[in-house]
Structure formats: structure tokens, C-alpha cells
Design a protein that fits this description.
single chain; mainly alpha; Arc Repressor Mutant, subunit A; 2 domains; 8 helices; elongated
């Protein structure tokens, strides 16, 4: 989050000590990223600009804007099963060594989840399922 913060400071020609951004808000925003609740890109591109101008609670803002990532493994596994079942030939190609197909599977699950699934978690879950 230093990148967006530095950009804001430079664009507004102010000192970092003169930002309206409360350090605790930055800590809470970084916490959301580290927990996987929101992606770094969502935090820096959507949440940061609002928090810098309006303040507020990062988690409450992410929730109200429907930006929280889905991390429910049972739900994600159901979506993964649907995708893998609909692409048996691609699953076979993957298992024969075409590992780049994992991106295809992740993309398809992301579509089903309407972009809400945590892509890092998806990669792990899909790779685990395909190794069985």
C-alpha cells in the first residue's frame, strides 16, 4: 500500500504527515489484504481513494461495496467441481502436463463466483483437486 500512498502524497504535493489518512486506517486496510479478505488491486484502486478522501472503516467499506473476496472453501469446491466436470478434456490435458491450464480453471470459477473468489485460494484448491 506504500505505492498508492506515495502517489497520493506526490500528486497532492503534500508531506506524508499532512495526509488526511489516519495510520490506523492504513493498518486495517493492509490487514484486510493479508487476511485475503480483499485483493491488493481492490484495496489500492477502489478502497484507498475513498478512504483517503472520506475516511471510514476499511472492512465496513469493502463490505458495503461488495468487494470482499469469497473464502468459503466448501462453496468454492462446489464451483470447482462444476468447472472441472464441464471440461473433462482440459482436466486430462492438465494431468498430462499442461499445467498452464490452471489459469483457465481459475478464470472459469471466477466467472461463476462473479469475481468474488479469492484467486490464490482457488489456485491451491484447484491444484489439489487435479492432483487426485
Amino acid at each position: 500500500m506504500l505505492g498508492p500512498l506515495k502517489s497520493y502524497v506526490n500528486e497532492n504535493e503534500i508531506s506524508i504527515t499532512h495526509t488526511p489518512f489516519i495510520p490506523q486506517i492504513l493498518v486495517e486496510l493492509i490487514d484486510l489484504i493479508e487476511k485475503g479478505s480483499v485483493s491488493h488491486s481492490v484495496a489500492s484502486q477502489k478502497l484507498f481513494p475513498i478512504l483517503v478522501t472520506e475516511g471510514g472503516n476499511p472492512q465496513a467499506l469493502a463490505s458495503s461495496l461488495n468487494l470482499m473476496q469469497e473464502r468459503d472453501e466448501d462453496m468454492l469446491n462446489d464451483l470447482i467441481e462444476q468447472v472441472l466436470a464441464s471440461m473433462p478434456s482440459k482436466v486430462q490435458e492438465y494431468q498430462k502436463g499442461k499445467k498452464g491450464l490452471i489459469g483457465l480453471f481459475v478464470g472459469e470459477v471466477m466467472k461463476l463466483s462473479r469475481g468474488k473468489a479469492d484467486p490464490k485460494l482457488l489456485n491451491q484448491l484447484i491444484a489439489s483437486k487435479l492432483q487426485k
